[in-house]
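#dry-run=false #mode=assembly
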Amino acid sequence: MKFNTRSPYSVRFLCALLLALSTPVLLKSQDNPKPLINSTLEGTILDAKTREPLIGVSIQLKGTTHSSYTDSKGRFQFITGQKFPYNIIVSYIGYEKREITANGSPIEVLLKEDIKTLNEVVVVGYGTQSKRSVIGAVSTIKTSEIANQPSASFDQQIQGRAAGVQVGSNTGVPGDGLFFRIRGTTSINASSDPLYIIDGVFINNQSLQKITTQGQANNPLADINPADIESISILKDAEATAIYGARAANGVVLITTKRGTYNSRPKISLNTYQGASWAPELWDLLTGPEHATIINETWTNDGKPFATRPFRPVSEGGRGLPEEQQTYDRLNDVFRTGRLQNYDLSVSGGNDKTRYYIGGGYASQDATLKTNDYSRASFKINLDQTINSFLKVGTSNTLARSQRANARVGDGPQGGILQAGLHTPTYLPKFNADGTYAKWAGFDNLDVLIDNTDMQSVSSRYMGNIYGEAEIAKGLKLRSSWSLDYNNYDEFEYWNSLTNRGSANKGLAASSISQNLIWSSEQTLTYRNTFNENHTIGVLLGNSIQGNTARQTFAQGTNFPSDDLKQIASAATTTSSSNLAENKLSSFFSRIDYNYAGKYFLEASLRADGSSRFGADKKWGYFPSAGLSWRVKEESFLLNSQTISDLKIRASIGLTGNQNGIDNYAALGLWQGGYNYLDNPGSIPVQLANANLGWESTRQTNLGIDLGLFKDRLGIEFNVYHKYTEDLLLNDPLAPSTGFSSITKNTGEISNKGIELSINSTNIAAEHFKWQTNLNLGRNVNKIEKLPTPIDASYNTIRMIEGYPLYSFFVYKQLYVDPQTGDAVYEDLNQDGQLTVADKQVIGNASPKLFGGLNNAFSFKGIDLSVFFNFSYGNKIYNNNRFFLESGGTRDDRRAINKNQLNRWQKPGDITDVPRLTTQGTNYTLSPSSRFVEDGSFLRLSIVNLGYTLPKDLSRKVKASTIRVYVTGTNLALWTKYSGPDPEINVTSNPLVQGYDLGTPPVPRTVQLGLNVTL
Amino acid sequence: MKRLAYIFPFLLLFTSCENFLEVDPQLQVDESKAITNASSATTALNGLYNRLSANSYYGSNFPALSYLSGGDVQWSGSQSAPQEVVLHRLTADNGYVGSAWTAIYQTILSANYIIQAVPQVVDPLFTETQRNEVLGQAYFIRSLAYFDLARGWGGVPIILTPTRESSENANVEKSTLAETYAQVLKDLELAESLLPETTNRQRATRKTVWALRSRYHLYRSEWEQAESYATKVINDKANYSLLKPYAAFFASNAVGTSESVFELSYTISATNNHSNWWLPPALGGRREWSPTPQLVTLLTSAETGGGRKELLGQTAAPGNLWYGKLYYRSPTGTDPAYLIRTAELYLIRAEARAQQNNLGAALSDLNAVRDRAGLAALITTDKTAILNALAQERRLEFAFEADRWFDLVRTGKAGEVLGITNPNKYLFPIPTAEIVANNAIIQNNDY
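#status=ok
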């Protein structure tokens, strides 16, 4: 199969042609004959329980496409050529559909709220489906469940909400990147992040940050205001994702933003909250006297003379006796209670042809670690316009500006504000005797950093699309959509002469502007019809082209005339560079679905993708999938069952691809310039060619059962899946003696097997009291099935080895501390009597064995309460921060020491795992050691939300339809054995490194007070 | 069905043009366009010097391996890799050893490319003389790279053609030490024949080859040749001299002084981070390592250090911490890498002469260096005393250059001086990255 034909036209020409030819469609006038009026039906539609008018209810004349909608008072009018009596179908989202015979006008229709979740509409690739007919594994998250969490980005709010979706924070800094996996990690060097699509726009989730914050990165998804989101669909299995073929191996996250409702009066909604955040726990460090005691003990243990111990009287030339040392608390200087605030205002509504949503939001959050903060101003407008009976156009637009004050929070001493606060030995004073700032051990003075850190970034983002949709014939729709995601990421840093970086350079400033543009154009043709009552068939055909251009300009200046002049224009020495990279993707896709009587469902899809990244003969990849489901409930033997209200069995298999995350030009053999000598241009070989480079592909099978019991009071969804990834896009290590470290090629295999369980239960549904419980659990077993050469991730601690899972810690195993000598005893794996790299072994890995969330929601009259826990079990963490802080005195005056160091072996008979203090031997110099591999399991009381909705008559007095006040607390409690302040921590945005703690700000605890008003 | 007509333009989009998926890199060129004429050959040669001067090689890492192993520089920072080097507790995954090995072979790769491609370049403007100069420099740098591998790791895989595909140069086993040194000599001889007898301190000429040959023969205990090649350079007094005072070759932003036979210079468009490791925070560094008290004593003493005390600096009270300041150009990162200095040729010749029992001449060479440092002349007629004095002189003269460790290993004194009981530890380990990806290689003993 080969879709692409050699065409003389350029794509650009086609685009122009398309626009030109489309014009008559837009100008086409109504040419229908004037309708004949035979009856006028008027009526009101009310909620059956409250008798509140319902707005935007659809009323359709049965057997025709003629429909109308209720207005703000629940009224509608219907003018038709038919005579009474006739049947109308009244439908409204969230209510049971009714078919009514109209014998005359006016009528009153009462609609009952639909408590069955089965009628939910699920957003899937290129369309929506009722939950009944979904074959794939799809998790839908209603934003009402996750609203008002003080998370900067929606992806963080998903944590613990969807089975099989693992979300972890890297740091407690708002707006920073996080770890997001749907059904495990499928790739090593290509991306394992899902594909994110918002209202049909493919959006970038890779950080554009270029100025280092030491291993941390911003999260581009934070540019999206969670308040604008209506629903989130997470497509997990191949049946659901294969329609996105080439980029779907890691799952797809579909975000639908809020739109207006036809025929409704403007609804104004205001939401605001104010709150505070702080770090519930910090590190335990030794006091000055304790630190000195440890250092002296190391000294004497090393066999050095007691008389020359470092902490001896000043009169003897020492640093003073241990008991004379002061303790300087820096941690409480660098952490603070931060302020949170949020304002969202939106207006939505529509008439019979137009609907709109306009939203504006502002949020700001201070990190608990000083000088870090995040704020976002966003604006959203969604509009749909029906032009005539067959043509509809619309647009979705998001404009956002995220502003960050950054700091160096991770690894590396220079300018590192957390390290200066955490790692500077506590006995060392903050000021010199002469009152100047004291600097120790390569760290900046903390007060200097707190007052002078100046790192800013501004992300300006536009995400939007326009679409036109034409119903060419009954059931046959053509849709064309053009999308853009443009992100300008502007960073600036200035280090003045008080800081180490600045003093060395007489002031240092850097400016980086990164621009990322993703454009795409998609045309789809869909057809859906039901034949002979029972046969429903749907067909989708589509084509999309997409381009991505990344541009970057960087400038740096040093040698400034004064600290008051910060712009690079003032610098005496400047350097600059620019860069541009591009990639393109062209795709064709098709899907066909069929169902018989709502009982048997069948779906198959095929997608072909061509990528500019691959070798000439390997550009195109083909990704098929098929799925079927059997709605057993519809069978005669279950139809009348009172216990089983729903039962569906699903199965799917499919192939999806991956090409994200590898270099745009990974298939080419390249030389690169910029390697200069004596100011003459120089070039070097940087990459080996691989003309055979092609798609990484993941085969996935999924089996699922959906069970509803007791009128769907209890809903259970269970999935079991097996993902197998082949032809990994791997930076396969080469022997360094070849002059290259690796070549990107298709080699290696990874499997992910897992199960997912979701239980939704309405425990109590009394008149005034309701209690619902949602539980989801996910277990994923990851294994590297084939890997020709083991690969070390950075830090020599995480190694990828065939037969083991990703993120395995490869360390020396400390067996015990010899009670007699106090020395650490390590396992000599190959029993050669020496400790060499051959003795390193896998001890645990960073992936959890089980993870999930539990939510309990209660409502009593106007009061609502939800309590949400999330947990992770069985994941390990390499606590490298502890390696630094518990280094047995080897780091003397260069690092603080933690409390656990006091548990060291001191005398024969001591039983401990903290060896005797010494700089000699392997007690504290053999790294990495299993001593620092810790259990990172945790249970977190993640969110508690208590709200009160004022009674209607009270809110009406202020002309509001609803008023709700609430208080929310997050991270209110944490149960873990992990020795650091928080186990949800990772040093780096490097996707190959997980569970590596080099010290980052812990997840904050927040409490906030909020108000929702709807007018 | 008039509406169907409107589908037409959309259907056109269902096609895709093949060239839509062709995207060319903007920052790199295809390998086939790398070396095609005189100008691109020169560019590749500049790239080769850049590799030689990379941070992981002479920029800081390779000299650091030598002086950190040499016992006179202590670890005063927080990173584990230099700590392991200082403690002689190297493992195969030590980052410093690994990145030096990688950087050296990257240098060899660039040299191999030039050596293979330049003779085939069709360009009438690329004269024979120019070609020879480019080739000669590539041969010289390759010989230096294998020399550094030989003295650091012993026998290593010898790779003489560029890796153009991943299957090439895969699984190459270690040559013996003798074979590795033989390759060094072969390249030196070729370089000597190709390069002009000019003076250039920042690029290789025939004189640079002589200087390296002198060192090569010293390491091979070929005293006569070591002496004769050293003499060739020393005798060029118009161009090479022992600058006085000692600090003149590096202080006050000096570059390319007549002390230098071969140094790599750095500019704002190609910098190194050497000073960062040495300087204290107040001067913009992290003082990851610093001179030992013993070295401080020797360098500051008027009997042993003399003018070489300028290698040291001390922070303000109350810290009063000693630091090395051979590499101090912190705002710019443009400290040169000193590869071969005139002083070394004097000391090589002194040793070669002493070994040939020409003690008087040996002493006069040694005293030339002592004199430059502002020390009194040494007077002795004892060969061992002269050799010991030479070792001491080298230790102080090249305290922060790539010398001390290799000198101790070469003269067999590493055990005695540093207390290393296992002679297998005189070699660095072959890095893990090589071991796991090269099926033919065998780890050095006891790693």
